[in-house]
Write a structure and sequence with these properties.
Shape: elongated
């Protein structure tokens, strides 16, 4: 009988309350018209938990790290180009441990190639399509890779001015001269992904994505993990031009391509004795050259940055007119013959893995994904429960949606109740529901009317019964500073940082104390595909 009741309740809930199973709204005013059933216990007042970054082990410190050790580290997109080591985050995968177990999955080999790539774009809306940056991400995910252009947009704006970026007559461009010495590769597959999650994800990473607020985590770690890159050196030039005529974007971009092509000179001959790379690279057209080779621009400026070599710069040079500049980088190229001068020169296609691949909890994964897509929500909020009336006029059942307002300021559905309509006192029925959830969460509980169209998180209803927290019998296990409260029969559960102040925020202390230890391990949770909700 129970499966039929669950299925019926889901169908009714979908029709009468919401078309998605997870409420994911930042608008608290939608939920402020109810009546308080339970106040937060006076002996456990809300004290916001403030995360203090834990000290790292020596293997995870990033003050000194060689290029080869960047495999398995996260990368941010704060500055351009993405390969800039200023974007380095923290260890996500323990590559050293992984390579000892699967030596064939971590490879290094010499490549010794070099080439120049350029592209132009009239605005940042088509940046990703014009550049090859999205090819760097190994994903079948439904990800809006907006975060990949953050650093480029900020860098262009700081170099050339915000007004130029928004001018309809402006055209932007990028030239990358890339020198590749060696390739470093993690042979990432779906089967290896599972093995990494089970045994080779850094415990500090698991600790951090539970303790940090979502946007704070994204700021520290970024959105991707390095899995395949080349070492060597890279010279990147950014361009901004002001077009003389009102023409279509394609025409502007074609002419900017010509301006870029005429703005540098180099040799692609690497067959010189005792030398890995060509030593001929220069930018500009000389002090007496024309400002615009195509005659279509009133101004074409460039700024240059080198990565690696003996003159790796911490920032781009000041923008200068291409037609009035002459910059010779041949000695810098020659310095790349010394492998001690090598850095990451380029991420290979598919060489970056979305960081969400290594987050166990779906809801935490989606919170981080939202940050990757532009959300900056980063507040502390008092956790509360809401009981939403989802009963339709023609229903023979009472329907109630139980909603958790979490410490990040987001609403999530954690349960539903469907009961025969044999009582007329809806408040009494809600009180009974609230009492059951208060056995777990000793926090404030409020009734509300049907929620009004908040933002949705997911569309798959098949997992909804697993989110009904009170129907399960829990045991507890601890890993990487996180408590996992799991139902070993149904293979579901929820996780919470094993920190007393954090636990008290959700009023979970009595409930957790009452649970017996599980004999399972974190590896079992991954291997047995447990469905875990993160608080």
């Amino acid at each position: 009988m129970r499966p039929f009741i669950i299925f019926s309740a889901i169908i009714l809930l979908m029709a009468s309350c919401t078309k998605e199973d997870e409420i994911f709204s930042e608008d608290k005013t939608l939920f402020e018209d109810g009546e308080v059933i339970f106040e937060r216990p006076a002996d456990n007042p809300w004290i916001p938990y403030v995360y203090h970054k834990q000290s790292r082990s020596n293997s995870e410190r990033i003050t000194v790290i060689s290029t080869k050790d960047c495999l398995g580290y996260s990368f941010k997109s704060d500055v351009a180009p993405l390969e800039n080591m200023r974007n380095l985050g923290y260890k996500v995968i323990d590559i050293e441990k992984l390579s000892m177990t699967y030596p064939d999955k971590v490879r290094t080999w010499k490549i010794l190639t070099q080439d120049a790539k350029s592209f132009s774009f009239s605005d940042f809306d088509n940046f990703s399509s014009k550049s090859e940056i999205t090819k760097k991400i190994k994903t079948g995910h439904d990800l809006k890779l907006l975060f990949l252009s953050f650093g480029h947009k900020h860098t262009f704006s700081s170099l050339f001015g915000e007004s130029l970026l928004t001018d309809s007559n402006s055209v932007l461009g990028e030239l990358d001269v890339i020198f590749r010495d060696s390739c470093y590769e993690l042979g990432y597959t779906s089967s290896l992904k599972t093995e990494i999650q089970k045994s080779f994800v850094s415990p500090s990473f698991i600790h951090d994505y539970h303790y940090m607020r979502p946007y704070e985590f994204f700021q520290n770690y970024g959105g991707v993990v390095a899995a395949n890159f080349y070492s060597g050196g890279r010279a990147t030039a950014l361009y901004a031009g002001v077009y003389n005529e009102d023409v279509d974007s394609a025409t502007k971009e074609r002419n900017m391509d010509k301006e870029i092509e005429s703005s540098f000179s180099w040799s692609n001959d690497s067959d010189k004795p005792n030398s890995s790379f060509s030593n001929n690279l220069s930018f500009g057209r000389g002090k007496n050259a024309e400002l615009s080779i195509t005659k279509k621009f009133s101004s074409v400026k460039m700024a240059i940055k080198t990565l690696g070599g003996n003159a790796s710069s911490s920032a781009f040079s000041m923008p200068q007119e291409v037609g009035k500049s002459s910059i010779n980088l041949s000695s810098w190229v020659a310095s790349l013959d010394n492998p001690n001068n090598h850095v990451i020169s380029e991420f290979a296609d598919g060489g970056l893995i979305p960081i969400t691949d290594f987050i166990l909890e779906n809801n935490l994964k989606n919170m981080i994904k939202n940050c990757m897509e532009g959300s900056t929500l980063n507040n502390n909020h008092e956790p509360q429960l809401y009981i939403a009336n989802c009963t339709s006029a023609n229903s023979n059942l009472y329907e109630a949606l139980v909603i958790l307002y979490n410490r990040f300021g987001l609403f999530s559905a954690i349960g539903w109740i469907a009961i025969d309509n044999d009582k007329t006192d809806l408040y009494e029925r809600f009180y009974e529901i609230a009492s059951k959830y208060r056995d777990i969460f000793k926090i404030k509980v409020t009734t509300i009317s049907t929620p009004t169209k908040p933002k949705r998180e997911v569309t798959d209803h098949s997992d909804f019964p697993y989110r009904n927290i009170i129907i399960h019998s829990y045991k507890k296990l601890e890993y990487a500073g996180v408590l996992y409260l799991i139902d070993e029969t149904d293979k579901v559960g929820f996780s919470v940082p094993n920190n007393q102040q954090y636990i008290n925020e959700y009023g979970l202390n009595d409930f957790i104390t009452s649970l017996s230890p599980s004999k399972l391990t974190y590896t079992d949770l991954v291997d047995l595909e447990y469905f875990i909700i993160g608080l």
